[in-house]
Please model this.
Amino acid sequence: MKKYNDSFRINKKLIKNMLYINKNMTMFFSVLYLLTIVPLIGFLFINNYDFDSGFFIAPTSINYEKFTGGNFGSTKMSIYSITHYVAYEGPGQIIFLIANIVFVNKIIIKELNDGQMTMWLTFKTSRKNIILSKILSIVINNLIIFAPSFIILLVFSTLSMDASQNLGLMFYQSIQFIVINLLLLSIILFFSILFNEKNTLLNIVFALIGLYILIGWVLNIVDEFMGGEIKLLSYVKYFQIQYLVFMVMNFDYNQTELLKDFEWNNNGVVSILQSKNHNINWYLSTIFPMILLLLIFGLIYLSINKFNNKDIKI
Model:
C-alpha cells in the first residue's frame, strides 16, 4: 500500500526545477500568445469610441437615427470577436499546440532518449512520480502562458456594457479553452511516449493535427462571412476541436436584440443591438468538457504506464 501511494505522489522539488529550467520558453510563448491579442485590444479602443458606447462582449452594432431624418449604423469590435476568431480558435490553438510539442519533447522525450532521465531517479522517487511531476509542470506552463492574455480579456469583459449578461459566459468559455489545450497536451504526450524513437512519424502526426486545426478555422471563417451560402461549409464546425466542448458562446450574427437605447445630444436616438447567443445549453456545455476531462485523464494514465515500462537509456 505504501508503494502505491509513493508511486503517485507529486514531487514538488522536481516541478519547481522543471518550471525554472523552462521559464524562458514559457515566457516566450506567453508573449507570443499575448501579441495575438494586444493589437486586437488596441483596435477595440479605436472601434468603440463613438457615442461613449464602451466595450462589448457580444457582437454589437450601433444604429443612430437623427430626429431630422437620416440614420447610420456601424458594427463594433467585441471581446467575442477576439476570442472567436483568434484567441480561443485556430491561431490560439496552434500556439498552444506548438508550445506543448516543445515542452513534451524537451522535458520528457529528449531526456528519455538521451538517458538524462536517470538523473531524476537520484531524487529517490518512482518513475510514475517523475513522469507525473513533469506532466504537471507542463500543465502549469500552459496556465502561465494563458494567464496574462486571459486577465486582459477578463478586465475588458468586466468593463463591458453587457457584462451583466455575458461575463459569466466569457469566463466559462475560457475554462473550456483550457480543457481543449489539455486535450491537445494529452494527445501529444501519448503519441510522443508511444513513438518516442520515431521522430518522422511523430512529426507527421503533429503536422496533421495542426493542419486539421487550421483548415477547420479557415473554412469556418469563410462560412460565416458568406452567411452560410455554401451548405457544406456549415457542417465544418461540427468537426472542429472546440465543438467537442460545446462552446457556451456562439452568437448568431443574423439575429439581434436591443441592449439599450438613449438620446444623443438632443439630435437623435442611439440604439445598441446585440447578436443573440443561440448556443446557451449549460447541460451540454458542462457534460461535454467533463467527458473530455475523462478522456484526458485516460490518455495521461496510459502515457504514465507506457513511460513506466520504457527502457531508460543510461
Observations:
- The CA atoms of residues 16 and 32 lie 23 Å apart.
- The beta strands are 60-66, 71-76, 251-264, 268-277.
